[in-house]
Design goal:
This protein is mainly α and 225 residues long. The chain has one domain: Ferritin (Up-down Bundle), CATH 1.20.1260. Helices cover 68% and strands 0% of the residues. The longest helix has 36 residues. The two termini are 18 Å apart.
């Protein structure tokens, strides 16, 4: 664990820490509200939409983003046990709970659509599909079967597990910034390829929330340089 004495910096540091915690709490509450609203709006907007098919962009996104989110939960829980910094522990908890809930939501989509949880194509094949309107250019393209954008390697995950305190905090922030950047890339890619209500609503919420968290984590990483 990080030595608390190294974090002591007088009343100004305490106020900054308390302020950041308040911001994180507010952001967490806002994300819950956004998720509920997005889900409700999405449910209404899909009443007339055709059900996604097995190899659709919607189904591929649901499968692959589940895997991506599950690793996000894993990384967050590792660092939550490796640090005693309250701001980072709160952020890790927010990431774990938000991405866990969203992964469950996407699992439910596939069940509702009558589709298998495992795809019949290599992962990320859906990102090679034409964008809406018949074009081929979008926010991102990806080689089918290649590692997902921002996905940490087994070696990186093992390294994080072996660290504690400030070293764990730095590596987690580096990995999670990259992980979020990959998540945003995937969410923007499905927005280019889908108009299905619940998928669009969740993808937009992922883009907005993870971009905000990237900004926050970049500042937190700068503070630990």
């Amino acid at each position: 664990m990080t030595d608390e004495s190294t974090r002591a910096g007088g009343s100004d540091d305490g106020r900054r820490g308390a302020s950041r915690v308040a911001v994180l709490v507010a952001a967490s509450v806002a994300l819950v509200i956004v998720a509920i609203a997005a889900f409700s709006i999405g449910r209404l907007s899909t009443l007339g939409d055709p059900t996604p098919t097995q190899n659709s962009a919607e189904a591929g996104f649901a499968r692959d983003m589940q895997v991506h989110h599950i690793q996000g939960v894993e990384l967050a829980m590792i660092v939550r046990d490796a640090t005693d910094d309250p701001d980072l522990r709160l952020l890790a908890y927010d990431i774990a709970t938000t991405q866990g809930q969203q992964a469950g939501q996407m699992y439910g989509w596939l069940n509702e659509w009558g589709l298998s949880q495992a795809g019949s194509e290599p992962s990320m094949t859906w990102m090679t599909r034409p964008v809406a309107g018949g074009g081929h250019e979008g926010h991102a393209t990806h080689e089918p079967g290649a590692p997902m954008p921002g996905y940490a390697t087994p070696e990186q995950v093992a390294e994080l597990r072996a660290l504690t305190g400030l070293d764990a905090e730095r590596l987690f922030l580096e990995l999670m910034i990259t992980h979020h950047e990959g998540g945003v890339e995937m969410a923007e890619a499905v927005l280019d390829r889908s108009s299905y209500g619940v998928v669009v609503a969740l993808a937009r919420s992922i883009v907005d929330s993870q971009k905000a968290e990237i900004d926050l984590m970049t500042r937190m990483l700068d503070e630990r340089s």
